[in-house]
Design a protein that fits this description.
Helix content is 38%, strand content 17%. Helix 3 links the parallel strand 3 and strand 4. The two termini are 16 Å apart.
């Protein structure tokens, strides 16, 4: 059997720009989520450890306790945010250039909800990021209930000359699951904004989580199928793991949640990949954390071992990551 390489995001970027392009992840202090600040829910998603998103750079320590939302009238810390953006990009892009030979960059607004702020703040941050040397575009992590028509229209205008991606957390298409994990919006909302983003001409990456509470394999695969049908251009697959200081950790301790096994994850992942349209690139095929915050499952601790096991499993169906 001939082994076929899965179409990765790195391959997509290499083909498009003819050189090595990496995403450079930044975390802007002052950003939060509507299901953390109480706009749609409180406490965040049950699996989310909010403190893990707190940047520690000295340049932004004064922003502690300051949070923006769509209704914020002013942003007295914008200059500090812009400085933080520059410091992070300079440090990370230099490392990527030195370690991987990266020549061009996508600035990835990663932590929290990166359209959940006043338009002028977003515009200033996005334009600052695009002004950095060898930056070819942006990738913006957000939620479907936290973006306005104005921001979408603006991103669409940038997409005429830059590589613009928007990343939506789909997680599940089952509303009972979204309610169980305290997501704060329903599946129809995600579908609506993915379709709007595609209509506007934006590239869309969808995040899918396998192993959510009370979901079986058929439900996980239905989420993948729906995401593909909505027209996503790229996908990130995540197993649900449990970390300390989360509502999910409390459920796990009470015996109310059983994490997905590695065998189950590999099985559903293989099927999701076989269903995936060939043009949809893969940005992430698993996830985990290797520190004392991880409670379960332990197979999510070693990323290298995860990839080894995934490739061993994929080989049986003629694929390689």
């Amino acid at each position: 059997m001939k082994i076929k390489q899965i179409y990765t995001f790195g391959k997509y970027l290499q083909d498009k720009f003819g050189t090595k392009v990496h995403k450079t992840a930044v975390s802007i202090s002052g950003f939060t989520c509507p299901n953390i600040d109480g706009a749609v829910a409180k406490g965040g998603c049950t699996f989310c450890e909010n403190d893990s998103f707190s940047p520690s750079l000295d340049a932004v320590k004064p922003l502690k306790g300051f949070h923006l939302n769509l209704s914020s009238k002013e942003n007295p810390f914008l200059e500090k945010q812009l400085l933080q953006l520059q410091i992070q990009f300079n440090a990370l892009s230099t490392r990527q250039r030195n370690e991987y030979g990266t020549e061009k960059f996508l600035v990835y607004f990663q932590s929290f909800t990166n359209t959940y702020a006043p338009f002028e703040t977003l515009k200033a941050l996005y334009e600052k990021a695009l002004s950095f040397p060898n930056v070819v575009g942006l990738s913006i992590g957000t939620r479907s209930d936290s973006i306005t028509e104005q921001t979408l229209e603006y991103l669409a205008s940038l997409a005429k000359t830059k590589e613009i991606w928007i990343e939506f957390g789909i997680q599940s298409v089952y509303d009972e699951t979204l309610e169980r994990i305290n997501r704060g919006h329903d599946s129809a909302n995600v579908k609506e904004w993915i379709l709007k983003a595609k209509k506007a001409g934006l590239n869309v990456c969808g995040h899918l989580i396998f192993g959510l509470p009370d979901e079986d394999e058929a439900m996980m695969l239905e989420t993948a199928r729906a995401a593909y049908d909505w027209g996503i251009d790229s996908v990130k697959y995540h197993p649900l793991y449990v970390v300390k200081k989360t509502a999910l950790a409390n459920e796990y301790a009470r015996g109310e949640f059983t994490p997905i096994s590695e065998e189950q994850y590999l099985n559903v992942l293989n099927k999701a990949l076989q269903m995936k349209p060939l043009h949809v690139s893969v940005q992430r095929i698993t996830a985990g954390v290797d520190d004392d915050s991880l409670l379960a499952p332990q197979w999510c601790r070693d990323k290298n071992m995860q990839i080894k096991q995934i490739n061993a499993s994929l080989k049986k169906i003629g694929l390689k990551y």
